[in-house]
Amino acid sequence: MSPITFRHNPDRSRFEVLDGDTVIGRAAYVDRVDEGQRIFYHTVINEEYEGQGLAGRLAAQALDGTVAAGLRIVPVCPYIKKYLQKHPGYSANVQKPTPAILEFLSAFLEQRARR
Predict the structure, then answer these.
(1) Domain of residue 45, residue span
(2) Taking every pair of C-alpha atoms in the chain, what is the biggest distance, in angstroms?
(3) Beta carbons within 8 Å of 79's beta carbon, 6+ residues apart
(4) Which of 16, 4, 2 is nearest to 65 (CA)?
(5) Which CATH number goes with the domain that contains 83?
């Protein structure tokens, strides 16, 4: 196993966990820059890497990066929601999903699926 690293990949709208050059996990988002929001909708770690605390480290990297970028965290992803419940230090930077946000996300994902 190579060293585990983390990076932000804005071109793919996600934060990533890598084993060497191989992406083994990601926290996907869509930005609503005009609204100052980053909507997290999916977090996953490859099955063979589960149980090593990588999802939590990935979530911390993603949330810290979002706060540093001056964006509010909008948790739609169940893992990010759960992480935020256990880490209330982010609460000042969290915005609950509204119907308008969920509609925006749904339209984004539908358009992305068509590509």
Answers:
(1) 4-114
(2) 43
(3) 43, 55, 59
(4) 16
(5) 3.40.630.30
User: pLDDT by residue (tens digit) across 30-84?
Assistant: 999 899 999 999 999 999 999 999 999 999 999 999 999 999 999 999 999 999 9
CA-based end-to-end distance of the chain:
34
The contacts of residue 11 (CB under 8 Å, 6+ apart) are none
Neighbours of 107 (CB within 10 A): 10
Total domain count, the chain: 1
Strands 72-75 and 37-45: parallel
Query: Token pair 């983390």 is at which residue?
Result: 6
Question: What is the pTM (predicted TM-score) of this model?
Answer: 0.94
Contact (Cβ atoms closer than 8 angstroms) between residue 15 and residue 42? no
In this structure, how many other beta carbons lie within 10 angstroms of the beta carbon of residue 67?
A: 17
